[in-house]
């Protein structure tokens, strides 16, 4: 029997169910072979402040890491977008599910252009706030946290005129009809957006092997490349950075952009190479930092 650790949010529980179903299908197991263990994280408890302010992405992973290393669970399921760049040495990303729609969806208006002057956009993501301001400098990003349903309720209550949510999350919650997709050309997504990852203890060969059977290799390579870019940029959750890798004809291409916090400047670049070559992300990071004016550079490099 495998114990699968997850956060307890509705989206996290759906994603945990996807991993459980994939394991059952791949190995011909019964449902009882995978026990879902919800674990409450600091990030779930503190809902009223931006993630960047209260301690960053580790808030989502710390409790799951501890449970994993204490052998209370055998694997941990994460939205890879929320997993910090530097992971403990004794934990590995053993598998990723096939990536979902990577786009953001705009909820509350037909397009960013259609919003009234000065409209409030609920988002606590430095990337989304900067991208919105780059397109419409008059729009006002306001802090917006909580799970998907909480955010939609705040929007319905008129706290903001619009909000941006990941298509992947909406889709997995059965809310794929909410809002309109924003094209990748207009808003490049967050690194690892739309990807569900599964971690286990690095020394746990049995679980690693079981997870290898459900690993979607192209997604895994793209997510690792996007995360390698974050590492090379020394980006943290305050850094407005967008990145998306794809594999075509055996070649991995990463598109990425860095923004000034207020969206008043941005730089974009692209780099291609072999899917497993860590140099692609490093070269791209160097390109972006070389292009970046001081207000952007100041947000990177640690
Ligand atoms: N930061 C919260 C978060 N983490 C992952 C998703 C959506 C699912 C995904 O991108 O994998 C979301 C919600 C959102 O950004 O709308």
Automatic annotation (TrEMBL):
Its cofactor is dipyrromethane. One of its GO terms (biological process) is protoporphyrinogen IX biosynthetic process. One of its GO terms (molecular function) is hydroxymethylbilane synthase activity. Pathway: Porphyrin-containing compound metabolism; protoporphyrin-IX biosynthesis; coproporphyrinogen-III from 5-aminolevulinate: step 2/4. The porphobilinogen subunits are added to the dipyrromethane group. HAMAP family: Porphobil_deam. This is Porphobilinogen deaminase. It comes from Sphingomonas guangdongensis.
